[in-house]
Each structure stands twice: as structure tokens, then as C-alpha cells.
Amino acid sequence: MFGRDLRERGADITEANRNQLQRGNFIPAPRYLEALALRGRYLREFCEGVFADADVLLTPALPLPPPAIEKMRDERFADEFNRSRVINIYTRPFNYLGLPALSVPCGFTADGMPVACQLVGRPFDEATLLAVAHAYQDLTDWHHRSPQI
Fold it and tell me: Is there a contact between 6 and 21 (Cβ–Cβ < 8 Å)?
């Protein structure tokens, strides 16, 4: 949601997420253009280094277990959780580089919360990424399990 959509449909999302999106309005245009200008070089260097020996990269999806729904209903907690720079530490670089990525279930915490890993592929190679995710799910049953309530 950007600009007009955020103004017109902002009520469709939680306040915490709306606040997160609105912070993007405070990034000066020159800084944004600098980031865009560097993205191609960083993408090329990353791909040459990482994908020279691998087809897909496996990383954690989140650095911590997901909070309970009740906690996320507390607007103060949800806002702080969403504003935390830690929460997207593993997804942010791939979003910036524009690499295809997806998360697949890979287990549960000791207290029964679901966790996921992230698979990252080469630019425009979603087919390989999806094939690896499919093969993983054929070999595991995490995607069929539900958290204990």
C-alpha cells in the first residue's frame, strides 16, 4: 500500500502495520535513489559469491519465535514488534536485492509455536526455488502439522 492506497484503505490493516508502512514516507528521495543505484552492484556481487556453488540458499525466516495471537492483539506490543529492526533481519537483504524467496514450515519451538526456514533463489529462477520447496515438503511433514493450542 502506497500513497493514496494507504490513505484510502489504511483502515483495512492494523494500526501497527499502518505505522510501519507510513515510516517509508520519511525516507528522503535522494537516499532512496542512492539505495536503488547500489542495488544492482550488490545483487551481482552477492550472486557471484553465493550462487557460484549453490542453486538455493537456506536461512532462518525469523530470528525469534512468533508471538501468540493474544500478544499481537495488544497494539503497543504489536507496534513495537513490527518496528523492531530484528524481526526482518533475515528477509530484508533479499527483499532489497529483489531475489525470489519463500518460507516453509520446519518445526516447532519447545512451547509449540511454529517456525519456518527461508529458501532464496537466483534472480528469475522461481522454478528451481519452488521445486526445492516442493521436494522438501515431500520429504517432511511439517506443513501437515498444527501448533498445539
Answer: yes
The CA distance from 19 to 95, in Å, is 19
Q: Phi then psi for 18, rounded to 5 degrees?
A: -60, -45
The DSSP secondary-structure symbol of 92 reads H
Please write down the long-range contacts of 6-14, taking CB distance under 8 Å and 24 or more positions apart: 14/75, 14/78
Helix (H, G, I), strand (E, B) or coil at 58: strand
Contacts of 104 (CB under 8 A, 6+ apart): 116, 117, 119, 133, 136, 137, 142, 143
Instruction: Using the structure block, give the residue that is written with the C-alpha cell 500500500.
Output: 1
**First-residue to last-residue Cα distance in the chain:** 33
pTM of the predicted structure, to 2 decimals: 0.78
- Is 118:91 a contact under the CB 8 Å cutoff? yes
Q: pLDDT tens digit string along 85-99?
A: 778 889 999 999 999
Contacting residues for 62 by C-beta, under 8 A, at least 6 apart: 87, 90, 115, 116
Distance CA 84, CA 82 (A): 5
